[in-house]
Amino acid sequence: MISTLGLYVSLYAFIDITYYFTLWQIASSPDNYGNTYDLFSPETKANIWATIAELILGLFLIFKSKAIAKKMFSMAS
Q: For position 38, what pLDDT does the model report?
C-alpha cells in the first residue's frame, strides 16, 4: 500500500517534470527574430521546487516502503 502511494506521487511528479522540461525547452529556443523569453515567473520556480520535493517524497516512499510498513505495524501493536 505504501509503495503504491509512492508510485502515485512519483507518477504525478514525472508528469510535472515533463511539463517543466518542455516549457524550459520552449523558453530557451529563440523565435524567428532571435528573441528568447523568460517563461519562469517566481510562481513557476516555486512549483518546480515543489515538484522536486514531490519526486523525492515519492521515491522515498517507494524505496523505504518495507521499513515504513514495519514501523507502522510495530506502532499499531
A: 74
